[in-house]
Amino acid sequence: MSAAFRKAAKARQRPHRERAQPAARTKLGLLEKKKDYRLRAHDYHKKQNALRALQKKALDKNPDEFYFKMIRAEVKDGVHVIKQPKDEITPEQMKLMRTQDIKYVEMKRVAEAKKIERLKAELHLLDAAGSAAGRHLFFVDTEREVREFDIAAHLDTVPELVDRVYNRPSIATLQREAVKGPTDPAHLKKLAQQRKNQYDLLRQRIEREKAMFVISQKIQTRKDLLDKTHKVKVKKETTTGPAIYKFKFQRKR
Question: What is the Cα–Cα distance from 113 to 108, expressed in whole angstroms?
Fold first, then answer.
């Protein structure tokens, strides 16, 4: 083939043009054709593999295998529907169950309240660290009295016992008899830790008693909702309280 013929054939060829970029992808710039083809091919083969796996699973399935939808489903007018289970509990039975639940929760709550009172009686509301949670204020008349104020003299005790908020004997008592109770710092630290543990237990029991009270209220609310009287919800249920409903007034005979 001569050079002139090749030149004429090349002139007759149509110029190759790149396919137009989709409008949604213009912000991403021009993409290479080879890379775009690989992505589409990978997605196509992934879908074909998934379809083949589903077909194999359907072929391997035993048609006589039992599953619960065999007895819970039926076909009506060519539509596959699930049978709704019938309510086998009457409203009266449900109310009785709610009553038993409330009695059980109230029994547990009362037992917890008794334990709380017993713990409070043992601890005498003393702070675990040996000092009161609040502040003990002393009132004086002048600033000079503030500068010269001696807390040990004011409390009529020795300076070593000032930090105690309980079992703080006066000087007259100390002259008659010795200090009762442990005075060793290590022993006092151990007792303080024990009191702290007791207060932590008391706090947990108080929180548990409050939670049981909230549960009892919620159960009672659900029991009241079984009544067919018209009602309107006033407040939604929260973690700290039940929902509040307003019932239509009905005159009783």
Answer: 9
Query: Is the CA virtual torsion 199, 204, 208, 210 positive or negative?
Result: positive
Where along the chain do its domains lie? 91-127+135-247
Question: Can you tell me whether residue 40 is helix, strand or coil?
Answer: helix
Please report, to the nearest 10 degrees, the dihedral formed by the alpha carbons of residues 106, 109, 114, 119 taken in order: 180
Supply the pTM of this predicted model: 0.47
Which pLDDT does position 13 carry in this prediction?
Answer: 66
Q: How far apart, in Å, are the Cα atoms of 157 and each of 21, 127, 133, 160, 161?
A: 94, 21, 21, 8, 7
Task: Write the pLDDT tens digit of every residue in 7-63.
Answer: 776 666 666 565 666 777 767 665 555 456 777 788 899 999 999 999 998 888 877
DSSP character string of 172-241: HHHHHSPPPS---HHHHHHHHHHHHHHHHHHHHHHHHHHHHHHHHHHHHHHHHHTS-S-EEEEE--BTTB
